[in-house]
Design brief:
324 residues; Spore Coat Polysaccharide Biosynthesis Protein SpsA, Chain A; 2 domains; elongated; eight-stranded mixed β-sheet
């Protein structure tokens, strides 16, 4: 069976259509499947729509968080609950085209353990967004040696890969990079980013920058290396200013001293700030708080029990699900 994990946040206008389109595509390809919508603490009626879809088709399952924990938590909650031999992770707005899933499934049947969806075009993304995304992925790639160019969360992963990801102890996760870091036999399919079926893009510029910083610091040490380089450059600049002052270059004693102090102070503060940010990430990890908290699932109505999983998350009981 194939599980499709679909993180959702305020997607009341997309969920019903997304469920119907994916099921139709997979039914036409005769692929046994389940759909798992993870409601990441939506403020709209997303959960009501998910519940209604579950009543219509029991292959559609739902998990609702107690609050918004972010897309990464939603992805891992879906993987924790899935019962399939493989799982596809995709967005709820159909920008990841379901028509590509049968090709992913075919490659998996041929032996691929990770089938990565890569963007052959980036739709209507702005030039600024593309430049920022390209810079971010180059930083990740340079430190991890993982090919992140045009990558996305749209992936099919084998059960062994799922279990490997779920066994990782860190609380701050970056699925897009981790699914490449684990290795395994990987194939690639290309797709064009489609337009959203309904609603507006949920990610603001500030959210994207915050997401990039969190993932960059949780997956690489590059900012620390950059701070070391900046510190070295500041020191060299200060030395140059001192030499110029000794050589009699007219700068004014106060201006020279102020310039040196500002350069050194600015560089030191920047390096301290980066170091403190890493310390805060370490602090988040050592607290061992769960990645997410489940408030309810569509199975609750049937009296299914819950259990505490290895991460301490209140997750649906899938102990008797297993592989088909």
């Amino acid at each position: 069976m194939l599980s499709v994990v679909i993180p959702s946040y305020n997607e009341e206008g997309n969920i019903k259509n997304t469920a119907q389109v994916i099921s139709r595509v997979l039914d036409e390809s005769k692929i046994e499947h389940e759909l798992i919508f993870v409601d990441d603490g939506s403020k709209d009626s997303s959960w009501d729509v998910i519940s209604a879809e579950h009543e219509r088709d029991e292959r559609i399952r739902g998990i609702r968080f107690s609050r918004n924990f972010g897309k990464e938590g939603a992805i891992f909650a879906g993987l924790e609950a899935c019962r399939g031999d493989a799982a596809v992770v995709m967005d709820c707005d159909l920008q990841h085209p379901p028509q590509v899933i049968p090709k992913m499934y075919e490659l998996w049947q041929e032996g691929a353990q990770v089938v990565e969806g890569k963007k052959s075009s980036r739709g209507r993304e702005s030039l600024v967004y593309r430049a920022m995304a390209g810079f971010f992925y180059r930083l990740i790639q340079s430190s991890s040696k993982i090919d992140m160019k045009d990558s996305s969360d749209f992936k099919l992963i084998d059960r062994r890969v799922i279990d490997t990801l779920l066994a990782m102890p860190e609380r701050i996760t970056f699925f897009r990079a981790l699914s490449g870091w684990v290795g395994f036999d990987t194939k690639t399919v290309y797709y064009d980013v489609a337009e959203r079926f309904s609603g507006e893009r949920k990610w603001t510029a500030g959210m994207l920058i915050g997401y990039a910083i969190r993932n960059l610091t949780s997956f690489t040490g590059i900012p620390l290396y950059i701070s070391s380089v900046v510190g070295l450059l500041v020191m060299l600049a200060a030395v140059v200013l001192i030499i110029l002052n000794i050589a009699g270059v007219p700068m004014g004693s106060f201006d020279a001293a102020a310039s040196v102090l500002m350069l050194i102070g600015g560089g030191v503060l920047e390096c301290i700030g980066i170091g403190c940010y890493y310390i805060s990430r370490i602090y988040e990890e050592v607290k061992h708080r769960p990645r997410y908290i489940v408030a309810k699932t569509t199975e609750d109505k049937k009296g299914n029990k819950r259990k505490e999983n290895a991460g301490g998350d209140n997750a649906p009981d899938t102990s008797d699900g297993g592989k088909p």
